[in-house]
Write a structure and sequence with these properties.
The chain has about 230 residues and is mainly alpha-helical. About 70% of the residues lie in helices and about 0% in strands. About 40% of the residues are buried.
Length: about 230
């Protein structure tokens, strides 16, 4: 099955009325078919069974620039074949938060280069490239079950340093990364809470929001009780 055939099949699922879903979730992208996420996921599962060289096809799909097609690309690509160069090229193409988070969740956080790119991208200036760094941190805290505490603790100074960024999609990702690290275990919870308090003390508007939201969750009885149970 070729990339052109895949795109043609996706186009048949297109429904312009579904663009309301994108607008509802503040997803702004220039090219889209209008396919809901559950449909894209189901489609990608079937394509994985039909395509022999998923990595090559994923690259062609990504180059289409179409929002829904790019989602299929990161869902079917093989993380073992992904290179740092590909990650940087795709990162430079990011034009909305959903594609950022999808690529980081389904693909990039499962590559050997995930930690390096999390640090690197967090220092970038463009909003969605920067978000990708913190999205990666959040997903690594969730998906990398073999990660040592020190691996995730290393993200906290970066989170603190960029907590003053007022841009919506950056500050939300900074907050998200902090919360996910803090929900990993009791030791990381303590360190994340300490980071949140330093962020709060920094006095920036974005920092105050990030800290208040993170502390509300990380210090909550629900999270504390779950982490205590997990530690036993």
């Amino acid at each position: 099955m070729t990339a052109e055939q895949i795109i043609a099949e996706l186009k048949m699922l297109s429904d312009p009325a579904k663009v309301a879903d994108l607008e509802r979730y503040a997803i702004k992208t220039p090219k889209w078919f209008g396919i809901r996420t559950p449909e894209i996921k189901a489609f990608a599962r079937e394509i994985k069974k039909l395509v022999k060289d998923r990595h090559a096809i994923a690259a062609e799909l990504w180059n289409s620039g179409i929002y829904d097609v790019r989602a299929v690309a990161f869902m079917i690509d093989d993380p073992k074949q992904v290179t740092p160069e590909q990650m940087d090229a795709w990162c430079a193409d990011f034009d909305n938060w959903a594609t950022v988070d999808g690529a980081c969740s389904y693909l990039f956080c499962r590559t050997p280069y995930a930690y390096d790119k999390a640090f690197e991208w967090a220092e970038r200036e463009p909003e969605f490239e920067k978000r990708a760094g913190f999205s990666m941190m959040a997903y690594l805290a969730v998906h990398d079950k073999k990660a040592e505490d020190d691996d995730l603790t290393a993200f906290l100074p970066i989170i603190e340093r960029h907590s003053g960024d007022e841009r919506n999609f950056v500050k939300k990702a900074v907050n998200w990364a902090l919360r996910q690290i803090g929900k990993r275990n009791l030791a990381l919870n303590k360190l994340a809470i300490e980071s949140a308090k330093r962020i709060k003390a920094s006095g920036t508007k974005a920092g105050r929001w990030i800290a208040a939201d993170a502390l509300r969750e990380l210090e909550s009885p629900t999270v504390q009780e779950r982490l205590v149970r997990k530690s036993r």
